[in-house]
Design goal:
Layout lengths: L2 H16 L7 H22 L12 H11 L4 H30 L3 H38 L2 H13 L8 H7 L6 E7 L4 H15 L3 E6 L5 E7 L5 H12 L5 E3 L3 E2 H21 L8 E3 H10 L3 H12 L7 H16 L2 H8 L3 H15 L7 H14 L6
Parallel strand pairs: 4-6
Antiparallel strand pairs: 1-3, 1-4, 1-5, 2-3
Helix pairs in contact: 1-2, 1-4, 2-3, 3-5, 4-5, 8-9, 10-11, 12-16, 13-14, 13-15, 14-15
Length: about 400
């Protein structure tokens, strides 16, 4: 049996049947893949008679049941994933049995008996394993149900949802963070909750922020809120940025916002920042981005097709994916920013005449002087990195 190929089939069917909201969560999918892989290996050993049912000890499937409980995935989804997954396994083994029977000329009655025997063993294994996983899920779910942390996570999730819940006075006490203060959201898109909490300790010690709130967005990313009773000042924001910039992590920082509505707004902002960062070529995206850094891109990327049309219209041949077009765009962008041929040449490490020649070529391709439609061209240059195909070569 091609266990890796069968594993991928089972994973795809499980996601489609039970875990659609987590299809793009790489950490979750990896937990699922590891669980299926171990199940397949143990099932093959059981079918071949090298492992007795009572000897089966599984780590990854039990761990995956624990993960699902932590994410508050209903046990019905867990059970459905096992039914769907084992049907896929059964189908694969049945095809293998029939194929082998045909190749060897096995009598039909003997082949049917083999199918029946393997079917019984597959579903005996399923019952044995699914029971263990369900037990682990229930134990974890019960423990988490008593955990204030999980209750708080649920309340915060309710505040941030598409149909936000209004927090009661009791909810506010459980959350333990003043929702009416001035908030600054910090998204750590590649940092699990435990690591984010360690960073938060250093951050609060350095900046003296009086309150904070931690929320796990998924298994691999976390958002922090830093709260103050008064408005954030530029010096306060610079201090936070300094600490986060030295962390070595990928960071998205919102604008300050006040009250429950501000908490939601700041979360939407860091999500939008991360979408822009993810769309940028890795070499262009700095590890720390604030909302003001990419506010224009966020606004214009609400309609990517319209953004691409805008780029093509404003840049014309400069929008092409060739290396020459990329050099001309880079030269034009630096020239706009520095407003000096000499400074542009120094930054790009080329001769001043090279800069002049490139800008003349750029002007020809644009079809108008560089001083005309300068704002539109600068916007198009910024958008090009996000919405156009990568440069060839």
């Amino acid at each position: 049996m091609d266990l890796e190929g069968l594993r991928d089939v089972v994973v795809q069917r499980d996601i489609a049947a039970a875990f659609v909201p987590y299809a793009d969560d790489e950490a979750f999918v990896e937990h699922l893949r590891a669980s299926v892989q171990e199940n397949l290996a143990a099932l093959r050993a059981f079918l071949s008679g090298t492992l007795a049912l009572e000897e089966i000890r599984l780590d990854r499937p039990l761990n995956f049941g624990n993960v699902q409980a932590q994410l508050r995935i209903p046990q019905s989804s867990l059970q459905r994933s096992y039914r769907v997954g084992f049907v896929a396994m059964w189908e694969a083994w049945m095809r293998a049995v029939w194929s082998s029977a045909r190749e060897r000329g096995v009598p039909r009655d003997e082949a049917v008996a083999a199918v029946l025997g393997i079917t019984q063993r597959i579903f005996a294994y399923q019952d044995h394993v699914a029971y263990q996983v369900a037990e682990e899920f229930s134990r974890t779910e019960e423990a988490l149900g008593r955990s204030r942390r999980q209750v708080r996570q649920g309340l915060v999730r309710g505040l941030l949802g598409d149909d936000p819940q209004v927090p009661t006075p009791a909810d506010r006490v459980t959350i333990g963070y003043d929702l009416d203060w001035h908030h600054l959201a910090v998204l750590l898109p590649a940092c699990a909750e435990a690591d984010a909490e360690r960073l938060l300790g250093r951050l609060r010690a350095a900046t003296h922020v009086p309150q904070s709130l931690v929320h796990a967005v998924d298994l691999a990313s976390t958002v922090l809120w830093l709260g103050r009773p008064v408005a954030w000042q530029p010096a306060d924001l610079a201090e936070v940025t300094s600490v986060l910039g030295g962390s070595g992590l990928t960071v998205c920082i919102s604008e300050p916002a006040e009250g429950v509505g501000g908490l939601r707004q700041s979360f939407r902002q860091v999500q939008a920042i991360e979408r822009v960062r993810s769309a940028s070529p890795s070499s262009d995206a700095p590890p720390l981005l604030s909302y003001q850094d990419v506010a224009l891109e966020i606004l214009l990327l609400h309609d990517p097709a319209l953004a691409r049309a805008f780029v093509r219209k404003e840049l014309g041949p400069l929008a092409e994916g060739s290396l020459e077009a990329a050099r001309l765009r880079e030269t034009l962008e630096v020239s706009y920013r520095l407003a000096s041929h000499v400074a542009t040449a120094e930054l790009l490490a080329v001769h001043e005449h090279t800069v002049r020649n490139r800008l003349q070529k750029t002007e020809q391709l644009l079809g108008h002087p560089l001083a005309e439609r300068r704002t539109e061209v600068q916007v198009a240059l910024r958008l090009h990195r996000l919405v156009m195909p990568a440069t060839a070569g």
